Amino acid sequence: MRISVVLGTGLNAAIALPMAAIDPSRPKNQEYDRIAINTELSLLGANLIERTRWDDILIQSLPPGVCAQPLEYMCSGYYIGEMVRIIFVTTICSFPSWAGRVPRGFYAPHSLASSLVSILLQDTTADLSVSAAALAEAFGSSVRESAPWLEALKCIALSVTRRASGVMAMSIFTLLLVAYGDEPQDGRERVVGVSGAVFEKLAGFKESELTGKDLVRFG
């Protein structure tokens, strides 16, 4: 294993680099030829990824300093659910007729769990009845099946999830370039270990075409 990624609140990644790559002024342990370096995408600049106005709304509600960790607030399940909720709630303003039909608890910060986002993404029923039932149970109020806002919510969830998987893929590919230089020509498969509920359980995240599965094999 040369690269590992841990997805979740407090998310980080680690890469094993040759000891020779470390600053020569730092003491070295001659027993080992590689060292694990813990890192985060923000080391390449907090503004490396272009933020949307919805990202800015989310960042304003987070503790100071978190905005410098794009892997955390763009990829972890906790923030994916909140990002979907923020985009949707601001969209409701454009469709006043929806406001009285959306559960009131939906407007509370951090009320949309990533597990609900996953149910929504997996819902293949024509009227999204599975999602309607899950949302009704979570928020303690009725949700009408075939509601137009459910379709909008699913589209938002899909977009946010795909962006998150793309950000993660970009981060892993960057670490691969650091570890191996240009894209390897030897034909060997590079294995990246990934751990985290968002990767393992959020519907479509692992399977997304944006996860870079053509570049590496995830394990």
From TrEMBL:
<feature type="signal peptide">
    <location>
        <begin position="1"/>
        <end position="16"/>
    </location>
</feature>
<keyword id="KW-0324">Glycolysis</keyword>
<comment type="similarity">
    <text>Belongs to the hexokinase family.</text>
</comment>
<keyword id="KW-0547">Nucleotide-binding</keyword>
<protein>
    <recommendedName>
        <fullName>Phosphotransferase</fullName>
        <ecNumber>2.7.1.-</ecNumber>
    </recommendedName>
</protein>
<keyword id="KW-0732">Signal</keyword>
<feature type="domain" description="Hexokinase C-terminal">
    <location>
        <begin position="2"/>
        <end position="207"/>
    </location>
</feature>
<dbReference type="InterPro" id="IPR001312">
    <property type="entry name" value="Hexokinase"/>
</dbReference>
<dbReference type="InterPro" id="IPR022673">
    <property type="entry name" value="Hexokinase_C"/>
</dbReference>
<keyword id="KW-0067">ATP-binding</keyword>
<keyword id="KW-0808">Transferase</keyword>
<dbReference type="InterPro" id="IPR043129">
    <property type="entry name" value="ATPase_NBD"/>
</dbReference>
<dbReference type="Pfam" id="PF03727">
    <property type="entry name" value="Hexokinase_2"/>
</dbReference>
<keyword id="KW-0418">Kinase</keyword>
